[in-house]
Amino acid sequence: xxxxxxxxxxxxxxxxxxxxxGCTNDKAEVAPPRSNDKVVIPPQSSLIAVPVxxxxxxxxxALETAVPKRLWTINKAGQTCVSxxxxxVLVVKIKTPKIKxxxxxxxxxxxxxxxxxGHQIIVTMxxxxxxxxxxxxxxxxxxxxxxxxxxxxxxxxxxGTDWNPRAKVDIAYDWTREPGxxxxxxxxxxxxxxxxxxxxxxxRLEQTLPRELAKLQVREHVQAAWGKAFTSLQLxxxxxxxxxxxxxxxxxxxxxxxxxxxLRINLGMKALTQTxxxxxxxxxxxxxxxxxxxxxxxxGRMLFFIPVIAxxxxxxxxxxKALVKRSARxxxxxxxxxxxxxxxxVTLYGTTxxxxxxxxNFTAQDVANQFPRAEGMIWLTGMPVNPPNxxxxxxxxxxVTGKSNxxxxxxxxxxxxxxxxxxxxxxxxxxxxxxxxxxxMLKVSSAIDEKREGKLLIRARxxxxxxDSLKAAGQGLYLxxxxxxxxxxxxxxxx
Length: 495
What we know:
DUF4403; 2 domains; DUF4403 family protein; signal; alpha+beta; 21% helix; rod-shaped; single chain
């Protein structure tokens, strides 16, 4: 991280305690040492939902090509259409001859339909048979019969460790109208012969379905989503820019659901997330797609870490402006009386021991001219403190020191310890920065609600926020902000 989050007003409570807790020191001292430590933001481990979708219309089109429209034909000459039987005419039993005919016809299928329900893909194939009995006993020219059936294939998908789909196919059928012909008061059934043929069609369908499912290129889709997830997501566009770098570590399979013509593969991506403030960090190096792991719980839980950082350089003019405005009227200094002051440059930085140093360069002259004119730098140092889960800033263990000409040190230190000076600095630096914190959280929440980052569609929501203790570093004063919520990353180019 290269720059801090600009939070105006972060210091508005700094010297509320500084003013009241300052202690006089007659010795002229140099400025407190600067701290050069950086704000260290630990990476977080999240389980981000990565749904991958495939279009089942491709499967339907492939099956339409693989399964012929005409399933089989019928062409049987000299078949027994009506078996012989004995009938009684008056008192004599007469045996009727068997009636021969030629059976011709065809069995065709209608358009395939693919639907889904939960974890099952359902392929429905309507079948229609048209059968004609021709040259019946050389007397009747033709009789025609029809039959209808529904073939239903229930496909249960699983995924191998190599991310290639595996399918268990259960196929059933039922005749809604069994094949046969009504002839001379009898029903001539051909169900057994049709069943034998239909079983062959079903066997071919069972072989075709897994092969065509492989053409959905599920592994390629998963591989593309995995590779694109090595990226940096923008949480805040400006003032300042905030980025979250995502480094995937593991991909977990949590089954699939079917919605209409869309096959949705539920994946959970275990990833490290790192927060950066400033320019966009380089994307992490992508690693090969790891073997499949089974998802133990629901994916989508994400941990956010957003450091609210006050850049010391941005706070200096805020303090200086407040002091200049206050210098328009005299300060009342105990034991001295009214004192006029002129304030110059203000310096802020982190010092050792996790403390903050506030340096004020000014001149002072008592109105009664009883003391020599004083000029120099006064330093106030203290430890930033905030109650748990608040953005209220106060300082403890405050010390006031000075560096000036020999004759003016006492006047400067006395002035620095007056409630008026301390209150002025306190008004500028010591208020809570909750307003700016809330603005940042709102900006971050809206930024990641739904956005595109290249070919990725990111949806995220922060559900809960908690704040940690203030940390003072050389880079800035920052408040660790932890968030929990849900997040998903979808590769939008897959259709």
